[in-house]
Amino acid sequence: MERTYIGLIHKEPDSDYGVSFPDFLGCVTAGSTLEEARAMAADALELHIEGLASVGMEIPKPSSANAAIVHPDARDAIALLVVSTRSEYADIQESV
């Protein structure tokens, strides 16, 4: 099952592009280019979901774009990055 989550891209002048996910506290990654950050975000999201599922934790439903934009972490985000996942765990114990 494909699920689409929104990642927030953060960039400081002398840093890599950081990506965080409003739906997954603690799921963060970075890349030196936007393309690398996108690829790393997809990997980080997949691993995070698999980790949650492996210990029986609920997988949150993806937030809407409107909810992500008003998330406190979005204040300093330069863009929204949409990342899709095809995890076998995506439909396990979904929280509402």
Share of helix, binned: 25-40%
Fraction of residues in β-strands: 25-35%
Which CATH class is shown? Answer: Alpha Beta
Query: What Rg is obtained from the alpha carbons, in whole angstroms?
Result: 13 Å
Read across the widest sheet, the strand sequence of neighbours is 3-2-1-5
- Gross morphology: globular
Largest sheet: 4 strands, antiparallel
Low-confidence stretches: none
CATH third-level topology: Double Stranded RNA Binding Domain
Structure description:
With 96 residues, this protein is of the alpha+beta class. The protein has a single domain, classed as Double Stranded RNA Binding Domain. The protein is 27% helix and 34% strand. It starts with a strand and ends with a strand.
Please specify the SSE layout and strand pairing:
Layout: E1 3-11, E2 17-21, E3 24-31, H1 34-54, E4 59-60, H2 65-69, E5 79-85, E6 94-95
Parallel strand pairs: 4-6
Antiparallel strand pairs: 1-2, 1-5, 2-3
Summarize the structure in short.
This protein has 96 residues and is an alpha+beta fold.
Key phrases:
Double Stranded RNA Binding Domain, single chain, 96 residues, 2 helices, 6 strands, 4-stranded antiparallel sheet, 27% helix, two-stranded parallel ribbon
